[in-house]
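Lab channel / #folding
Pinned by the channel admin:
"Please post every new chain as: sequence first, then the structure tokens as a reply. Keep commentary short and put observations after the output so the thread stays searchable."

First post following the new format, from NK:
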Amino acid sequence: MSAVFTRADDRLGDFALRALDPEGDAGVLHRWVTHPKSAFWLMQDADEAQVVEEYRRIAAHPHHDAYLGLWRGSPAFLAERYDPAHVELVGLYDHQPGDVGMHFLCAPAGTPVHGFTRAVIRTVLAWLFADPATVRVVVEPDVRNTAVHALNAAVGFEVVGPITKPEKEALLSVCTRAQFQAATEPAAATAAEGAPA
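Reply from TO:
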């Protein structure tokens, strides 16, 4: 399958996204979503058939898509894009035209690569904002997932507040294109790195 988006990271190299194949990618997906580090993905007890069924359902949905992320040509992360007016957040927040919902999951790594997760979220957001129709990206991670809250803040997300979903208490956050650019452009990174500790 061909890539729908590519991004070259200055430090870590090439990242890409391609459409997910529920059957062909089932083995790798199952390992990722059932790993202990993926507890917030809420699929810990799923067998491979259930993972295939879930991603077939997403593939068939008119307002939800899933993509396999590649790093240097190998599977390394999962990204989902959804319309929050129809999926996940219906009636739970003040939906605005141009809102796009996002989930992402990095593959559990035996040896962590410094800056990898931040490079992945930057890739996913760059992909979403490459569509001129995207005005804001909306996320709703579990309120207990402090690591992802910090990561979201680092790439420009602003916390709206907690919301109650059927499966979790979530922290709703939004990021505009301008917020993403301000947080990730070289001048912003240099200023942050040079700031007193």
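NK: Confidence is low (pLDDT under 50) at residues 188-197.
TO: also worth noting, The two ends are 45 Å apart (CA to CA).
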